[in-house]
Amino acid sequence: MEKKDFFENKSKTYSKDSKRVRNVQTIANGILDKVNYTKDMHIMDFGSGTGLLSIEIAPYVGKITGIDMSKSMNEELEANKDLVDCDLEILELDLSKSDINKKFDGIISSMTLHHVEDIVELLKKFHNMLDEGGTIALSDLYTEDGTFHSEDTGVFHFGFDEEFIVQCAKKAGFRQLEISQVSVAKKPHKEFPIFLLTGLK
Ligand SMILES: C[S@@+](CC[C@H](N)C(=O)[O-])C[C@H]1O[C@@H](n2cnc3c(N)ncnc32)[C@H](O)[C@@H]1O
Predict the structure, then answer these.
(1) Please, are residues 156 and 180 in contact by the beta-carbon 8 Å criterion?
(2) How do the domains of the chain map onto residue ranges?
(3) What is the mean pLDDT of each run of 10 residues along the chain (201 residues)?
(4) Which ligand 1 atom is nearest residue 47's CA?
(5) I need a surface site. Which of 39, 55, 124, 179 has the fewest CB within 10 A?
(6) Predicted TM-score (pTM) of this structure
(7) Which ligand 1 atom minimizes the distance to the CA of 48?
(8) Quick one: fold of 11-200?
């Protein structure tokens, strides 16, 4: 069966939305305030999309593996790869349905968790993919009323409560968990606060 590419109609213009770019830059600054990266580190960006988060984190790490199931978003990242100031590998796969045999020093993600149904399973997978002491820095929407998305991009959660997402990360084995608001996505009809969850394997 042909896989549906939920971002096919958005990929070309995705990085052209200045509010979206600023939001991800703010998230990246929040991540860099909380997590120490070094140039020998290999990081995974889950749901890397067109690379908005990877571009901001790249100068501080050695290599980023971007994982994304959307062919069209991966093509945009490939086209933007000169903006990613470290080694870059792009893997096209649905991480909720497949496993990869790689280990990372850290995992970053922005605005992607709400597209995955089983968060504990995903976070267990992240835990397995990290070396001991490896970090997570995961950012997404706080619980919203369902009006954030105007079209179907494969949404399973209308954001998350702090308590829920922290408990999921605990169940997956993460420690030293911290969560706080890091940014706000501004839409014409409403503002949507965004959290950053950090922790250690
Ligand atoms: C809203 S975009 C965010 C892109 C980027 N992180 C940013 O902040 O600009 C979500 C991305 O996650 C990808 N995605 C969603 N579920 C996924 C999964 N199970 N495995 C891999 N990629 C996934 C989508 O294809 C999409 O490119």
Answers:
(1) no
(2) 11-200
(3) 78 89 97 98 98 98 98 96 98 94 97 96 98 97 90 88 98 98 94 97 98
(4) 12
(5) 39
(6) 0.96
(7) 6
(8) Rossmann fold (3.40.50)
